[in-house]
Amino acid sequence: MKRIIYVLLIATLAFTACGKKEVIKSTSMEDLYIEQGVPIKIATIETQNFALQNTYNCLLTGIQETPVYASLSDQIEKINIKIGSQVSKDDVLMEFPITNPAASYKQAEAAYLLSDQTQQRMQSLYNSGGLSKQELDGVETQFKVSKANFESVQRAVKVKAPIAGIVTDVNVKLAQKVNPGELLCTIAQLTQLKGRIWMTEAEIAYAKVGMPLTVEWNGLSYSGKISDIALSMNPSQRAFGVDIVVNNPQRKLKSGINAQVTVSLINKPNSIIIPRHMIQRDEQKNDYVYIVENGLAVKKIVTTGMENNLDMEVLSGINPGDAIITEGFNIVKDQQKVNILD
What we know:
It is a single chain. This protein is an alpha+beta fold. The protein folds into three domains: 35-50 and 269-340, conserved putative lor/sdh protein from methanococcus maripaludis s2 fold; 54-63 and 189-267, Elongation Factor Tu (Ef-tu), domain 3, CATH 2.40.30.170; 67-185, CATH 2.40.50.100. Helices cover 23% and strands 43% of the residues. The chain has five helices and 22 strands. Mean pLDDT is 88; it is low at 1-26.
């Protein structure tokens, strides 16, 4: 009997032991945050210089640049220039034969000389009272017409430089047959170059005539400035045209090149600048960031200004010296305990 009771007791103890379950309290991440604080990293806000620089592609040409075209059809008899030649206005660049039938050079010259002599004789008669003013006016008019015709023929036969500058290209060869309208050469003034860049509606508000800029080409930098700003948006470009002038004293920049133009539109000292991704937006469409005060995350509504690549200017809402949350800002809540990590 005692043996049976002993066996039953052992069995009961064994069953009781097997029936016990160890209770482990589960701690959630939220409970951990409440107890220890949300892990974050911070940075102290400091003022800095806010500079907005934009870069544009720009086609550059001479500050003055003029193509010269043929006025008649013939072979080129003489070329007085080459690429790089310095010319003055009205220098003869090329010559065609004066015997060209289309030019009628000899006829125009003879008519001019005759009208010049006639005009001089009639002037003498008028001075002596032998000719009326009306008759003299008619003679002078004929002289002016003959002179203009001869000058036009001269320009066609003896091609003159329309401006002073450098010959940047010669498109024909000696004895080559050309036709009216064919490009003969190009003359440009290259100590300065000009171009046009296009700015958006947001950018144009900061552009000013005389604003300095930098031109980069072939590894070299050149200074320049904004020379003019369009007052209306170009409908095809959907942007505002901004004319620039670039200094080129050694003429290393070539007409027709594409260069990079950098303009500093804004330069504001003592600005608060933070990475754009740190700025969040709430349901009321307010921009905000989190700072730390007394060990708690504090939501601060901010007013933003200009954007520069990945950075954003903050105009109000936070101050220099504030400890802004740089990591973990997307998991904290207002007035929540934080754990600042090194």
